[in-house]
Each structure stands twice: as C-alpha cells, then as structure tokens.
C-alpha cells in the first residue's frame, strides 16, 4: 500500500478532549487539522477553549458548527466572534446536526452558509458532510441535493472547502459514492471518515447510531466478529481496500479523516505504526549512505 494516502490526515476530538490532545501532541504531526465537535451539553466557552488549545499545541483547529443546535443568530455570531478574536476562525465544519427539530432558526448547514456571517468573521475554508451509506433520517435524494447545493454555495462565496464523510467499515460503498459525487460535478477534496482503533462494541454502538452498515459480511471485511465484541480493531483492512482501488481520475482528491472516539493518542500511534509498516523500502543507494 502507498502510505501517501495518509498524507495530511485529519483527526476529530470533542471540546472535553483537550487533556488527551496534550498527551498525544508528540505523536501528531505539526499542522495537522483537528476537528472539534459541536456536541449537546457543551457550551460556547468549552468549544472556544478547545479551539485555542488546538492552535496553541501547533495544530489547525477546525471548529464544528451544528446548524440545528444553534438557538439563535446571535448565538452563531457570538461563537464566530469568539473564534475570530482567538484567531481560530479560518477553518470550520458546518453540519446540519442531530436534533430532529431545529433548536433555532437554522434548518440545515446550507442555511448557515447563506447567512453571510462566516466570511464576515474571517472564515476561509468550510468543510461539509457526506454520507456514503446514507443517513437514517434523510433520503438519498435529499442528501445529494443538499451536498450539491452546499458545494455550489461554497464556490459562489469563494470559500476553500472539503467534504468529510461519515465513517464506515466497507470501502465499496465509499468508492461508489466518490464516483457518484464526481459525476454530479462536485470537485471538492474528500476526507474519507475512518474509525480509529477502538473496541468492537463501541464501534458498533456508533455505527447503529449513524446508520452505518454492520452486516456479518461487512464485519468480516473490516476484521471483527459480531459474535465476539470484546476485542479492539483498527482500520487496516479498510485502508488497504481503499488504497488498492483508489483512482484519482475517477475518485478525485481523497484524504483520510479519523474519528478518534476519545482515543487521540491511540489513533496517532496507530497511524504512525501503520505508515512505518508500509513505508517504501530504501533503495540500495539510500541504504548505503
């Protein structure tokens, strides 16, 4: 496998994971993009503190904005103003969010993009969400419409951007989705979501929540058993399958985004070990230097 697939990977953390990030900092390349989730129960101060910590530790903060969790336009302005004041507003990820009903005026991510507030507060790069295996609460047709509309909006406002996908255990639907995305004219780079090494039971819990396929055949492909939930597994097989069939001409620019589930150091160490294991062997001239 070509380890270049893991060049410029990104990581995800919550606002409460700052101590874990400090523990893992030596294992993460400087300048790595680190997304900071927008969870229920976390206040603006917690999110801003996390973004500041990511920047202080030498990484690129990518704060999330969950449209349906925003109670008001002033709340959005407060968050963006805080990011701007801290110098952490350059990159954000805008997602619709989990609530069945919006907690304020924003129905979806596109509604946030259309406020004009992002540019006004110094945002230059916007990530948007992609769902290769669909979404349990949204039809495929609506998902494609939303994604293409958001891509058009980013282009119109001259934002840099990328698409970050929900994680999965099977490379086949991801590759098919990438082809479908390019066929629809979306040329944004895609960061394919991958679970970091984690307990099988925990992975299956997240998969159930997000509608990710976990059939017996998919489990075997990924490398875990549905009848033995006590082990831990990493995305080795998934990445191999993705790399073996990845074709830039058909799939466009692809990078990897790791969902760490709180295991920042374990994920960073796993990535380093995986890259070392698959690094090209030195040529004779190099080994003799």
Automatic annotation (TrEMBL):
Pfam families: MTHFR. Transmembrane segments: none annotated. Pathway: One-carbon metabolism; tetrahydrofolate interconversion. It comes from the Bacteria. The keyword Secreted does not apply. The keyword Flavoprotein applies. Its cofactor is FAD. InterPro entries: FAD-linked_oxidoreductase-like, Mehydrof_redctse-like. This is Methylenetetrahydrofolate reductase. It comes from Streptomyces achromogenes.
């Amino acid at each position: 496998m070509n380890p270049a697939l893991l060049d410029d990977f990104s990581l995800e953390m919550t606002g409460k994971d700052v101590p874990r990030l400090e523990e893992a900092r030596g294992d993460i390349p400087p300048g790595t993009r680190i997304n900071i989730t927008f969870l229920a129960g976390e206040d603006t101060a917690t999110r801003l503190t996390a973004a500041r910590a990511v920047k202080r530790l030498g990484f690129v903060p990518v704060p999330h904005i969950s449209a349906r969790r925003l109670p008001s336009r002033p709340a959005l302005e407060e968050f963006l103003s805080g990011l701007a004041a801290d110098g952490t507003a350059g990159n954000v990820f805008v997602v619709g969010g989990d609530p069945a009903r919006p907690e304020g005026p924003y129905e979806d991510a596109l509604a946030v993009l259309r406020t004009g507030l992002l540019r006004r507060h110094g945002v230059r790069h916007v990530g948007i969400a992609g769902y290769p295996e669909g979404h349990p609460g949204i039809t495929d047709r609506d998902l494609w419409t939303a994604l293409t509309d958001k891509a058009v909006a980013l282009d119109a406002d001259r934002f840099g951007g990328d698409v970050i996908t929900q994680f999965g255990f099977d490379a086949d639907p991801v590759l098919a989705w990438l082809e479908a995305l390019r066929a629809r004219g979306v040329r944004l780079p895609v960061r394919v979501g991958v679970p970091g090494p984690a307990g099988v039971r925990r992975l299956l819990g997240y998969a159930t929540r997000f509608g990710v396929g976990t059939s017996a055949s998919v489990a075997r492909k990924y490398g875990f058993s549905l009848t033995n939930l006590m082990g831990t597994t990493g995305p080795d097989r998934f990445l191999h399958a993705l790399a073996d069939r990845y074709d830039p001409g058909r799939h466009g620019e692809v990078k990897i985004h790791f969902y760490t589930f709180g295991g920042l150091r374990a994920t960073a160490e796993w990535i380093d070990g995986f890259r070392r294991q698959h690094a090209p062997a030195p040529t004779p001239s190099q080994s003799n230097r």
